[in-house]
Amino acid sequence: AAAHAVAARASAAVVMRSTRRRRAASAAPPGSRAASCHGTRRHFSDFISPGSAQGANGLRLALAAACLPHPDKAQKGGEDAYFASPRRRAFGVADGVGGWAESGVDPGEYSRCLLRYAHEGILDGGTADSEADLQEALMIAARQLNESGLQGGSTALLGQLNGRTMGILNLGDSGAMLLRPALRTPPGSDQPLLFPRVVFRSSDQTHYFNCPYQLGSGSGPTEA
Length: 224
Hints:
Elements: E1 2-7, E2 12-17, E3 45-48, E4 61-66, E5 80-85, E6 90-95, H1 107-124, H2 134-148, E7 153-154, E8 156-162, E9 165-171, E10 175-184, E11 193-201, E12 206-208, E13 211-212, E14 215-216
Antiparallel strand pairs: 1-2, 1-4, 2-10, 3-4, 5-6, 6-8, 7-14, 8-9, 10-11, 12-13
């Protein structure tokens, strides 16, 4: 799954990615799942335009997202989730941990609920122009999931644009990159062209290969 956020005025772009993962850091037996975040099935791609001006002195965020699940997981909507909020200049990506499927759990339901609660926390956490507490929004979402009894696990990436600063919170091995255009001359040509230049890239957080840091159900402490 991938989501893209373009900061138009500074010709900068943030690219988030989510990769499929198979293993859960701790596998609690599946219990009753009281909560459900399926709702109306979403399309695999969406475009969200920046509806209102976001301040003359700040950057403006144009948001677009696409979810491309594995063909074997497409019928249930995949295991990844995302949200984009033009009003709060915020976005998020979650990668459901596929290892939970071996216990009869739908990892996609957990990741979708996680981002739904995080999105609600960001919307309720201040005015449209204020800076969101991304860590608090994530922790509140984790508590709501634990209280619901929903089983599963997920990585999480949240971001918000404030003025000329992009705040990123990343847990696990989903990722964010900040790209800016730079002039480069291709080999064999004397004509410089604009190519994306990576100016920031988040670091993966994993216990070992294929087992990322994650939020998950069970009795273990929240990794943060």
